[in-house]
Each structure stands twice: as C-alpha cells, then as structure tokens.
Amino acid sequence: MKIGYPCINLTIGCKGDRTFRLKSYSEQRLIETVTNNINCLAAMLTFNVEHDLLFFRVTSDLVPFASHRVCQFDWHTYFKDQLTAIGSFIKSHNIRISMHPGQYTVLNSQDNEIFARSIKELEYHADVLDALGLDASAKIQLHVGGVYRDKRKSVQQFIDRYRNLNKRIKQRLVIENDDRSYTADDCIRIYEETGVPVLFDVFHHELNHSHSSITDVLATITKTWQAQDGIPMVDYSYHHPGGLRVSHAKSIDSADFERFLTITQPYDFDIMLEIKDKETSALKAVEIARGDMRFFHGKFTH
DNA sequence: CCCTGTCAAGTCACG
DNA sequence: CGTGACTTGACAGGG
User: Fold this and answer.
1) Which of A1, A19, A149, A167 is found 20 to 30 A from A138 (Cα to Cα)?
2) Which residues pair with A58 in a beta bridge?
C-alpha cells in the first residue's frame, strides 16, 4: 500500500501546474512554463520520497495546450533529458504514478469532434508517461463519460471506442466510478466486456452506488487489475456529514480514514487522498497507516 | 499593486 | 435557459 495526493504540493512553494491563456500562447511561453512545471515536479517527488508519500498524480497541466492544435512544439524531445531523469527517480524510488484527464475528455461522446479531441488528450497523457519511461502500472484514469439518456447505448459506445484505442493508450487506461452517472458496478460490467481495470473512488461510491458495499466492490475490482497493471488504485476523500453542501473536506478525518483502512484490511491497493490540503492530509494518513500496523500486516510501503 | 472577470474543452442537475 | 460542479484557482487586463 502506498499513500499519495494529487498534482500539487502546497508546502514547498512550487506547485508545478502553471499555465497561461490560449491567447498568449507562444513557443517561448510554453518552454518557460513547462520548464517551471518539470522542475516543480522533480521537487515535489523529492519531497514525497522524504515523507514516505510514494503515490503521486502528475497534473494534466504539465504541458499546457499540449493536445491543442496551437501546440506544434516537440516538447517531448526538447525536455527529453529532464523527463528521463525524473522517470529514473520515480523508478529507483518505486513511486506509483497516475494521471487524470479533465472533464472535457469524453471517450463515448456522440460528437465526433469531442471524441477526436479526447483521443488527442489521451495521447498527450500517454506521451508524458512514455517520456518518463514508466511501465503499464502508471495509469491514466478516466470516467466513462456521458449517458445521453440511454445508458446501455452509451456504455456500448464506450466499449467500442475502447476496443479501437492504440495499445499505447489502452495499456494505461483505467476507468473510475463517478458521482452521478456511472457506478462502480457499471464500471465492472464494462471491465467484463473489455478487460479495462476499474479504479475505485470511495467518495463517488457513497454519492452514487447500487447495492454493493465498499468491501464487495474492492473484492471485485481487485480482480480487474492484472499483474502488469500493478495493484489497484483507490481514490479516497471525505465529505462533511449532515452538511447541505457535498464537497471535499478541507482536511482528513482521521477516524473515518482509520475506519476505512480497517474495513478494507484484507485488500492491498494504493490510496490517492483527494483532500484540499493535499500533502498535509496525506502525511497524516501515512502516520495513521504506520502507527496501526496491526491492521496492515506490513502492507504499508515505507 | 490590487481587483476581478474570465479562462480550450463537456455533461448534467438544478433553479 | 443560465449557472454551478466536476480534479482546481490562476491569468491578465484595467483601475
């Protein structure tokens, strides 16, 4: 089990997700921004290793507009040395990496333009992970997409599109249950048709689930990850109970997290803590996991 | 320097 | 029909 947080670090004063407006695009601006973001990525990974945070999500903003037609720059070659070095660091410290394209990436879209842009975006994400030299255990997590008032048809569209993906993308793509349209059970059904691994989001499951319990789902999704995929990834967050607004908590609820670790004790997976204060909560989670080894039988990775 | 409207892109629920 | 939420605030022009 590895514990991590997504995309940006709020402690080290360098977040690595700098971007700019499309109107102000220039090759010079892109190079400056990507240089900053890559340097910050290296700094964040160094911080993480020093603090036993061995799971990290790389921001989709690493190379802004990379999948947009305005970007003709060969960033892949230009930054080859730096990316290779970061990839070596990741591998030598056994860090698990994920990426998560934004809400505009919709593989099952009914609009062919949106579909084509989504492919470009997935290619960009695969480019980043390939440039880092990472194997197929570095994943790109994606929601199934739109429902378009006909879930059966929309699921079939996803399956057809998935089957036609390049191997380069397919070997990295995993699907994640979302908070309103596709439940973990829906994702599992898609796995049965395609073999695509299922990333379990605990918070989304609480908002949008069928009958299955957390442990039922974990038992099933564990089987969707094959040897080359690595152990399952799980997104964990927490929302304030009883509140009118349903939103991610500012900081981790230690009791809830400990309860979660306890009920999921038979399963091994990497946990991404999607909590606003980022590494602060992830560090608390590491302390909880480390301090309560009787639950984990040593599965927590130091 | 501060303020704030706007930002590449999609889908869906809510009023 | 317009707005907000989603994985998230930051950019950039005007005062």
Assistant:
1) A19
2) A99
Q: Which residues touch strand B (CB under 7 A)?
A: A 21-23, 64-68, 102-106, 109-111, 114, 117, 121, 145-148, 180-181
What is the tens place of the pLDDT at every residue in A85-133?
A: 999 999 999 999 999 998 899 999 999 999 999 999 999 999 999 999 9
Strand partners, A233: A270
Two structure tokens written together for A130: 């390939």
CA distances to A16, A25, A33, A67, A75 from A70, rounded to whole Å, are 22, 8, 16, 8, 13
CA distance A26 to A130: 25
Q: How far apart are the first and last CA of chain A?
A: 9
The pLDDT tens digits for A237-282 are 876 544 434 445 678 889 989 999 999 999 999 999 988 888 899 9
* CB A13 within 7 Å, strand C: no
Predicted TM-score (pTM) of the model is 0.94
Protein-to-nucleotide distance from the CA of A207 to the C1' of C3, whole angstroms: 22
- Strand C proximal to A130 Cβ, under 7 A: no
Q: Is any atom of strand C within 7 angstroms of residue A80's beta carbon?
A: no
Give yes or no for a contact between A95 and A138, defined as CB atoms under 8 angstroms apart. no
CA–CA distance, A58 with A170 (Å, rounded to integer): 18
- Strand C close to A25 by CB, under 7 A: no
A251 touches strand C (CB under 7 A): no
- Determine contact, residues A120/A72, Cβ cutoff 8 Å: no
Is A239 (CB) below 7 Å from strand C?
no
